[in-house]
Design a protein that fits this description.
30% of the residues lie in helices and 27% in strands. It is α+β, with helices and mostly antiparallel strands. The chain has a single domain (5-65, 77-110), classed as Beta-Lactamase. It comes from Acaulospora morrowiae.
């Protein structure tokens, strides 16, 4: 099989810890650095589903508050938003998820604390 250049490029990003790709249709792990498992892929898949569900609910609530004067809004302004990028941060690491080419590209990266001083190599 041909290598996925998008996946390969993730490891060159600053503070890279791990990365993986997930099938957008079924949540199966497609490619990963050695420390990533299907459990990580499933969590990413469910996270993006939940974010899209929240956006849909938010859009429904926004639409339900429209007054009669605002009912003539163009359909383009009334369509549901689909998210294609999500970032989640924890104390010492973060995850970035991007949807492209029917895949979820994920990267786990380190977060430097404000108290960390740059080294001479930085």
């Amino acid at each position: 099989t041909q290598r996925d250049e998008n996946f390969d490029s993730l490891s060159s990003l600053d503070n890279h810890i791990a990365s993986f790709t997930v099938n957008l249709e079924d949540g199966l792990l497609l490619d990963a650095t050695p420390d990533i498992t299907q459990t990580h892929a499933t969590a990413a898949y469910k996270l993006l589903q939940n974010v899209n569900l929240l956006l849909t609910k938010q859009q429904e609530n926004t639409n339900s508050y429209d007054t009669d004067a605002n009912k003539d809004v163009k359909e383009d302004e009334n369509r549901t938003t689909t998210i294609n990028r999500v970032s989640v941060a924890f104390q010492d690491c973060g995850y970035g998820f991007t949807v492209a080419d029917e895949k979820i590209y994920a990267i786990k990266y380190g977060i430097k604390s404000e108290t960390e001083q740059p080294t001479e190599d930085s």
